[in-house]
Amino acid sequence: MARAAPRTTPDHHYRSPGTTTGDDTADGHGAPRPVTVGVGAPLYPVGLVVAGRPCLVVGGGRVAGGKIRGLLACGAAVTVVAPQVHDAVEYLVEEGAVAAIDGAPLQIELRPYAPGEAARFELVIAATGDAEVDDAVHRDATGAGVWVNVADHAAHCTFVLPALARDGAVTVAVSTGGASPALATWLRDRVVDLMGPGVGELADMLGEARRQVHERGATTEALEWRSLLDGPLTALVRAGRLDEARATLDAFVADAPLTPRSRRRRAPVEPAAHADDSPPEQPSA
Question: In CATH, what number is assigned to the domain containing residue 99?
């Protein structure tokens, strides 16, 4: 059966200098600020687990709606604060985000932002477009050590929102550090084309294979995963021939030499445990 194309999410909203949109403020009357370009520092890329965690979005426009949608898709407990939220709710309905909510993680409070309330949350996004309100949210969040993103004001962001593509467990994120969301989206789309269909299914299969190896008390680090992926496995998954793909993967694991965990050779410096997908760092050339 044919698989749907990976879902994509655009980088944060871009506005040309000297222009405004209906997303500038919750009531449409706030003063626009000059657009800042880039965060001015190298980014340390991470993937945040926000499921069930309290997150705040300040703003009720379509820009805020996009931020709310992204948080809800990851299971966050989202509180929205704005005097009006018509545009944000309309956006969420159009995108199917409201219908997809499992449980009740979305709380909407129709009121202005209250000074200091950002400190009660673990992650905060300000998307009013009103410089005074956004700056207050930024000050409160940074003062409390809370991660904060201010839409269209990269200098006031302690995290940025990349252009995303999702397919099951696979997430591809592309960021320019706020310098050019258009470039981030363009690059993201090219990566999606290269990925092709079935990447999420492939990740699930490989995860199950790793689990089976670990249950046998062995490490997976000695297995030639790259040669497996460069072989027929990926093409079989893309073609929807999943039974053949599983048989190929089972044969690979069965034939591969398995190193018991107790016999793993230690590096000169103890590496950190890799619970994620990042490989151990290699020495500089």
Answer: 3.40.50.720
